[in-house]
Specification:
InterPro entries: DUF2530
Keywords: Membrane, Transmembrane, Transmembrane helix
Strand content: under 5%
Structural class: mainly alpha
Largest sheet: none
Order of helices and strands: HHHH
Low-confidence stretches: 98-105, 111-117
Shape: flat
Distance between the termini: 42 Å
Protein name: DUF2530 domain-containing protein
Pfam families: DUF2530
Organism: Streptomyces hazeniae
Amino acid sequence: MGLISKWTDGEREAPEPLEGPVVGTVVTGTLVWFLLFVGQLPFYGWFSDHGHTWWIWTCAAGAGLGLVGLLYVRLREAALRREAAAARDAGRTAGPSAGDASPSAPDPAGGSGRRAPAE
């Protein structure tokens, strides 16, 4: 049994993903990269003389990728809100009185359509 196999053998269940202030975290990281980029610009000559211009461009890339990340997390949160609203609306309209479906009608997804008794 290898060192890594104890984590990848499928016996452990993956933890739930953490949810938190994702947009704020990405905005903060993007601002840090942008401020580092702007703060190093006055020293471009020194960085160029010493072969360290990649430091400046690394900060610029971090700020640019942060903007892409910000777009991604905003679109993700909007999609999660839409999904939650759709599930909430579907929960309100579902039930025996919705259409001609009865509790004993077969489930279109292949289930029996019956709920397990509450314990």
